[in-house]
Amino acid sequence: MGSKYAEIGIDVKKKGVEVFRPSLESLFPRAFCPVVRDPKFKKYGMVLHTDGAGSKPLQSYLHWRETGEDKWFRGIAQDVLAMNLDDVVCVGATPLSFVDYVAVNRSKVPKEKLLSVLNAGFKECFGMLGEHGIKLSFLGGETADLPDQLRTLDVSGTISASVELSKVISSDGIRPGDLIVGLRSGGRTKYERKENSGMMCNGITLARHSLMKSEYARKYPELKDPDGKGYYGKFSFDDNLDELGMTVGEAILSPTRIFAPIITKALDKHKQIAGLVHNTGGGQTKCLRLGRNIHYIKDDLIEPDGIFHLIQREAKVGWREMFEDFNMGVGLEIIVKKESVDEVLAIAEKFGLGAKVTGRCEKSNGKNRLTIKSRFGKFEYW
Fold this sequence. Notes:
Blueprint: H1 4-7, E1 36-37, E2 44-52, H2 56-67, H3 75-88, E3 94-104, H4 111-131, E4 137-145, E5 153-164, E6 179-184, H5 204-211, H6 214-219, E7 240-241, E8 246-247, H7 248-253, H8 260-269, E9 273-278, E10 294-298, H9 306-315, H10 319-325, E11 330-336, H11 341-350, E12 355-363, E13 369-374, E14 377-381
Parallel strand pairs: 3-4, 10-13
Antiparallel strand pairs: 1-2, 2-5, 3-5, 6-11, 6-12, 7-8, 9-11, 10-12, 13-14
């Protein structure tokens, strides 16, 4: 059976990016992000990372068109920041500065209002991070008016970070016997203002197409690929579902959780963290990028949040593909030595974040493997 994502023109495996690998100069090839030596301070490495909010801005655009309320764009700021920040902390790096890139078709999107709301969103996030000892400088960015290239808007960002080379989380230390601690993507931590659906930024295109009713794509044709599959869902953006505890639109737009306060604290206290995995593109299979000859076995995963059950049911996606396309309730994983597990779990608990041991590492033969054992079935990936 073909991928539901492929049917709407998305390549979840990102085929083609391998052409860049020979050009990478990372000192730690199996680290979550490339690290290069600082030419001035030889004991330190530099990290530069860029990412965006995916197609989430299109859902924000839909809400704005239906309500006229600019507030729906605000969460994009946290999405973009989280997608960059939590990737660089996965190599143990200290974030230094951040810039954004906002591209719009101003005939469709109110540029000045959008920028004002995004600025407020970034300011709130930087304030929260500062309260937890993460001093990240905002150095502005770039805006572009691209009416010939863009139907609505796109928002992305770039972050710079520094790391002492002796403290890089390279993943080379992942060994059989290490345990996997999963950090929940949904719920609400002590530093968040409201409940999160757990959606993060990946899988949004499939969520939008399978959940939002077809009339939206007819009403706002700029929401979809003119030659692609249209919306085929049955929900309005403001339909409130008990299984979500919020509206369908709010569940799709729930800002990507920022895990950096927890990870920074864990790294300060524990030197036995062997790997960190931000479950973005590739979902639960993201761990396959880390370590060598490791068989990841996840046999006690956190129960997927309601939004994932809803997408699976409405899109008629097999559970094997769901684990590959979505984080499925586990936003970030800490691979840690057995003797430090309890202390890592205690740190998550202090922040009010749901966490548990979701699996373990065993030896593989030749290449990394992943086995997921769940109530939905057993699935193998490599």
